[in-house]
Amino acid sequence: MAGYTTLAGVRLSAAARRFVSAVSRDVAKPVVVTSGARSAQSQAQAMYDRFKRGGSYHAFRQRRAAMKIHEAFVAGRKQRQSERETVRAMADVIEKQLRSRVYVSRQLHPTALELRTRGCTSSEREALIKACRANRARVVVEERHPPHLHIQF
After folding, report:
1. 24 & 65 share domain
2. Hey, is 22 helix, strand or coil?
3. What stretches in the chain show pLDDT beneath 50?
4. Which of 19, 29, 64, 132 is deepest in the core (most CB within 10 A)?
């Protein structure tokens, strides 16, 4: 049993804790949870950081929703708003979308997790994916920068 840790500020539901505990029993290396389900505010911050690094909204499945959030980002930058003000405006867009049941990211669902794969060998990464699937989860996306898995359980 390898166990698991979470990054500072990551909160897990009871179901998420049970899932990660089960996965961690099936792998040799400790599991690191880098993100759980996100609030509109935390999703807005993640998207702000992505856009600030030059990332695009095109990577999102819900491109129209992501484009609207990106528009709030661009407007905030043009108006020379602080990061806090811009993120709040982006979160307002996300909250409006959520009321219409539009989810720009699966991370807004309570059954979403991100698991770190940085420092894993290919066999350790495959073992982690296999353990997730054995516990009835889907590996939605395997990101390379930074290396991590998006999981839906």
Report:
1. no
2. helix
3. none
4. 132
